[in-house]
Write a structure and sequence with these properties.
The protein is an alpha+beta fold and 854 residues long. 37% of the residues lie in helices and 23% in strands. It contains 28 helices and 33 strands. Strands 1-30-29-28 form a four-stranded antiparallel β-sheet, with helices on one face. Strands 2-3-4-5 form a four-stranded antiparallel β-sheet, with helices on one face. It has a four-stranded antiparallel β-sheet with strand order 6-7-8-9, with no helix packed on it. Helix 15 crosses helix 16, helix 18 packs across helix 19 and helix 21 packs antiparallel against helix 22.
């Protein structure tokens, strides 16, 4: 609730009633200031009776008959001594160059502010109100109206004399007139009328709702929202009247316009003034309250409300009680509400006080948020409207927010805000760091310190690192990883870490951090030693990034022990920097690691490590037998005799069989399969691979007395050896497992072969017949012979120029044409002639012949 103080213009907070505001967290819509300067002095000796607002100045009438022109700060610019009694109304035209004044003693003056020429008249009755035509200065007729017991229109005629017309009379005293464009609205004791001066017609009569209220004590408030909307407030009733054009078909004897009441509702208090605010209304209420202990009414502070009109009710948007001077002595008629067109400025006039209400701007909004300790919202509002705010600074608001968070103990949020608020101000940054140090919260601000283009002094960063080193090794390590090494003195930090390692030499976190510091300082060899000792996963990245291959020549075994796969991949990817021979030499005492390296080398390229293939045979036999046979198959450089010797020593049958077959001793290999492995399927597969009749004979001879082998042969040799040869050699009476199934399979395989052959024969015959028919159709086609064709022998035109002569032409199916006499074999039978061009194809497409004669 707003409360007005005795001083000059005050901020709206000084007008606020503390007890009421504590109950509500809703931000007020308006702020209030007292109009002071010259006004204060005037109201000390006199009392305000009326006031009119123009864009450029204010016109104030007093109870002692004076009119003062004021600037918007309340300073007096002009003074007019009009009468000795109360000024009832001051009216200005839109230009602000002409003024109309009426007083309680019947005086009416209308004159130019700069000329003093105009209308001056004394009437024998009080004139309550005067209103100038809005375009008075531009109009030739200089129209204005006055209201006392009659509504009179004054205008100049062509003789420059004033002509008077009575627009209305007989309904009591006229208390209010509002002139907008061509419409004049006035209020008398019975209601409100609207007169259209362009058509000289009265277009409506809006009756007052509560006739019990005295019109002189509770006067009517009129206000034009726009050229077609009149707002009427009387007693506790508000009506919004829209002036509309009547349909031409309905005119007859009716006015061309009519009024429709679009909204009508009751209010809680008596209305002293109205003003539009966009689609809302500003209402000034005269309030009477009843004291509970006295059970009698007393005058309370007037209220200024913003309401949203609805069809039959209204919605309260805001409500402020105003503590104007001497409000206990004022009646409803003592208050007035005036507003400036085009500006959200509202003047509350009472006899001893004038208060200006205005919409709150962004600065006021921020003030309210700060007062409510809503710092984050205030900072956001300032950032969004930084171009429009005048009294506030975004950084100062941000600092207030940080201070608030620190006071609340939310240190992390305060530190996070520092990034946004402090920006590139190094002085503020350093002040905040020292403040966080004072309260023991350096850790909170550490992760938000600037580390890009803007950098603080190295001492700041070192101070934070030492703080972490004392209490939090992990946090220290995190900062070293995240902060660029240029932020601080690297040597000083290394020394500090070294001092801590003397107390705890095996601390893995400190050792890793020390290695990172050595890396920043480009002492890679020392970093590498620590990484290898710790078996740290970053060792390989360090070697690659800084090309430390010369430093790891004597550390290959350590690298392999740490991670064989990564180490071998790295060594093989960088053979140009660390030769294979050097790696093999380093691994000579660790054959299991040497095997891993040579195996991967062989997988990449079968020929690169050929000089080590002989050594690899023993390594595969010792550490990786599953890959020995693939190695023997793929290698073309290993000595077969050496490999055979090793395999025979270790009794590796499969490998020995492969080596024997590769050395040409297939019979011995087959014998090993049958005797040592006893695997007929492998023996058959081996015989199929070699495709040697002698091997098949040896296999059959070895298997003839072994029924399981005979079964295997019967099931598998049908496509390589005639099964009859095997069947004839089976001894009578020998019991062979699954013989019936094997014979059935042989017959099925035979039938399948017969079916395949027959199918292939059918396809071949069908394709041959199709191609023959196609060739026949092609050769049966006619061949066009005309003047464009030439003899392929003499290259003359194939047809003679004189078609009457007898000629013979030979046309082959290959489309080559000859004169008959140009063919070399004149005595040959035509059926056996060949195209000279195609004869090399041995009776090709030109084997046929067509003979043309005429």
């Amino acid at each position: 609730m707003a409360e007005v103080e005795d001083q000059g213009r005050k901020s709206s907070e000084e007008f606020t009633d503390s007890s009421e505001e504590e109950e509500s967290e809703e931000e007020p819509k308006l702020k209030y200031e007292r109009l002071s300067n010259g006004v204060t002095e005037i109201l000390q000796k006199d009392a305000a009776s009326c006031m009119t607002v123009h864009d450029k100045f204010l016109a104030l009438g007093t109870h002692f008959g004076k009119v003062f022109l004021l600037d918007v700060q309340g300073n007096v610019t002009q003074k007019f001594e009009i009468s000795s009694v109360k000024i009832n109304q001051v009216s200005l035209d839109e230009s602000g160059e002409n003024v109309g004044i009426c007083s309680e003693d019947g005086k009416v003056q209308v004159f130019g502010l700069y000329t003093r020429e105009g209308f001056h008249e004394n009437f024998d009755c009080p004139i309550k109100v005067v209103a100038l035509h809005p375009q008075f200065s531009k109009s030739n007729y200089k129209q204005f109206v006055t209201g006392g017991s009659k509504l009179l229109l004054y205008e100049r005629n062509w003789l420059n004399r004033w002509k008077t017309s009575v627009l209305h009379e007989g309904e009591g005293s006229i208390s209010n007139i509002q002139w907008r464009a061509n419409l004049i609205a006035w209020a008398n004791n019975l209601g409100v009328k609207i007169y259209d001066i362009s058509t000289k017609q009265r277009i409506t009569n809006v009756l007052r709702d509560d006739a019990s209220l005295r019109p002189d004590m509770y006067p009517c408030s009129l206000c034009w929202k726009d050229n077609q909307t009149l707002i009427v407030g009387w007693g506790t009733s508000i009506k919004m009247c829209a002036v509309k054009e009547r349909n031409p078909t309905e005119l007859r004897d009716l006015p061309s316009r009519y009024v429709e009441i679009v909204s009508a509702f009751e209010t809680e208090f008596f209305i002293s003034g109205l003003a539009p605010l966009a689609d809302q209304l500003v209402t000034l209420y005269f309030v009477k309250e009843t004291a509970k202990h006295l059970e009698e009414e007393f005058r309370a502070r007037p209220r200024l409300d913003i309401i949203q009109p609805l069809a039959e009710s209204c919605e309260e948007i805001s409500s402020d009680a105003l503590s104007v001077r001497n409000f206990q002595d004022n009646e409803c008629r003592d208050y007035r509400l005036e507003h400036a067109e085009g500006e959200s400025l509202f003047y509350i006039i009472s006899p001893k006080d004038i208060v200006v209400a205005k919409e709150r701007d962004q600065d006021d909004h921020i003030d309210w948020l700060l007062d409510k300790k809503k710092y984050e919202e205030a900072l956001m509002a300032a950032e969004i409207s930084f171009k429009n705010i005048k009294r506030h600074d975004v950084q100062k608001i941000g600092m207030a927010f940080i201070n608030h968070l620190v006071e609340r103990g939310d240190y992390d949020a305060a530190a996070r805000k520092c990034q946004k608020v402090l920006g590139k101000n190094m002085e503020l940054w350093e002040n905040e760091v020292y403040r966080f140090k004072t309260i023991g919260q350096l850790k909170a601000i550490s992760q938000y310190l600037p580390r890009g283009d803007l950098r603080l002094r190295p001492a700041i960063y070192e101070m934070i690192l030492h703080e972490f080193l004392k209490t939090d090794y992990e946090g220290f390590a995190t900062l070293i990883r995240e902060w660029p090494g240029e932020l601080y003195n690297n040597m000083a930090v290394v020394q500090a870490v070294g001092d801590h390692l003397k107390k705890d030499p095996t601390n893995r976190t400190l050792l890793t951090t020390l290695a990172e510091l050595y890396t920043y300082d480009q002492r890679y060899d020392r970093a590498l030693e620590i990484y290898l000792r710790l078996r740290h996963r970053d060792v390989y990245q360090l070697i690659h990034k800084h090309d430390l291959f010369s430093s790891i020549e004597d550390k290959i075994v350590l690298l392999m022990d740490f991670d064989k796969e990564k180490a071998v991949d790295m060594l093989l990817d960088n053979e140009d920097k660390l030769s294979t021979d050097r790696v093999v030499e380093e691994l000579r005492d660790r054959p299991e690691l040497l095997h891993v390296f040579l195996h991967k080398l062989f997988k990449r390229d079968h020929h690169k490590g050929q000089r080590y293939h002989e050594r690899q045979i023993g390594l595969y036999a010792e550490y990786d037998r599953p890959n020995l046979l693939p190695f023997l198959r793929d290698s073309t450089h290993c000595p077969l005799e050496k490999a055979l010797e090793i395999c025979q020593q270790r009794n590796f049958v499969e490998e020995t069989v492969f080596l024997l077959s590769r050395m040409g001793n297939c019979r011995r290999a087959l014998q090993m399969i049958m005797e040592e492995l006893g695997d007929v399927d492998k023996a058959i597969e081996f015989a199929k691979e070699q495709d040697d009749a002698e091997l098949w004979e040896d296999l059959i001879s070895y298997s003839i007395d072994k029924p399981p082998f005979i079964t295997g042969l019967l099931n598998n040799i049908g496509t390589h050896v005639d099964p009859i040869l095997l069947i004839h050699r089976i001894k009578e009476g020998m019991e062979i497992p699954n013989l019936r199934d094997s014979l059935v399979k042989i017959l099925q395989d035979y039938n399948l072969q017969i079916l395949l052959r027959e199918g292939c024969k059918k396809i071949l015959v069908a394709d041959s017949l199709s191609l023959l028919q196609k060739m026949h159709r092609t050769q049966m086609r006619g061949v066009r012979v005309d003047d464009e064709n030439i003899c392929e022998s003499c290259h003359g035109t194939i047809l003679p120029s004189d078609m009457a002569q007898t000629f013979s032409v030979v046309v082959f199916h290959c489309r080559h044409m000859f004169h008959k006499e140009c063919l070399p074999s004149s005595g040959t039978i035509p059926a056996h002639q060949f195209c000279n061009i195609c004869s090399a194809k041995k009776r090709g497409p030109g084997s046929g012949i067509m003979d043309m004669k005429k």
